[in-house]
Amino acid sequence: MGQLRRFAVPTAEVLLKRKGGKVVTIEKDASVLQAAEKMNEKRIGALIVVSGEQAVGIFTERDILTRVIAAQRSVAETTVAQVMTSPMACCTRTTRVAECKAVMTEKRIRHLPVVEQGKLYGMISSGDVLANQVANQEDTIHYLSEYLYGRT
């Protein structure tokens, strides 16, 4: 029968290669309204907040709801820096996907920036983690089917 295949342990870098490392950012002094407009335009749920080249936090849909709308703050007058999440949970390119998933579950977050030595390499989402899990399961099913039935 077939040989036993070893599956590589997926890392954040694997997810970034699949989806790309482009991250949408916003300056910390931008208004919440500008951030919401950018998120709507790009159809995304989170922005990395920057001060120049340095990532200083993350701003999400949840931040808008809990720290702006529910607090009855003005979206035009409130800056992103006033309501962003900082410090933000991060991972590195070599962090295993299982660890990323555990952090996201524990902290109840859907976005995890990939940062090393202050440099932002990308951001993975819970959707990226789920897509990776589905792809791994499909590979396993294919392999087992091939092993059991000799088909491809």
Summarize this structure briefly.
With 152 residues, the chain is α+β, with helices and mostly antiparallel strands. Helices cover 44% and strands 19% of the residues.
Please render the helix and strand layout as text.
Layout (H helix, E strand, L loop, with lengths): L11 H8 L5 E3 L4 H11 L3 E6 L2 E7 H9 L10 H4 L13 H11 L3 E6 L2 E7 H24 L3
Parallel strand pairs: 1-2
Antiparallel strand pairs: 2-3, 4-5
In words, what does this structure look like?
With 152 residues, this protein is an alpha+beta fold. The chain has a single domain (12-149), classed as Roll (CBS-domain). Helices cover 44% and strands 19% of the residues. The radius of gyration is 19 Å and the shape is elongated. The model is unreliable at 1-5 (pLDDT under 50).
Keywords for this entry:
152 residues; alpha+beta; CBS-domain; three-stranded mixed sheet; 6 helices; 5 strands; 19% strand; elongated; disordered N terminus
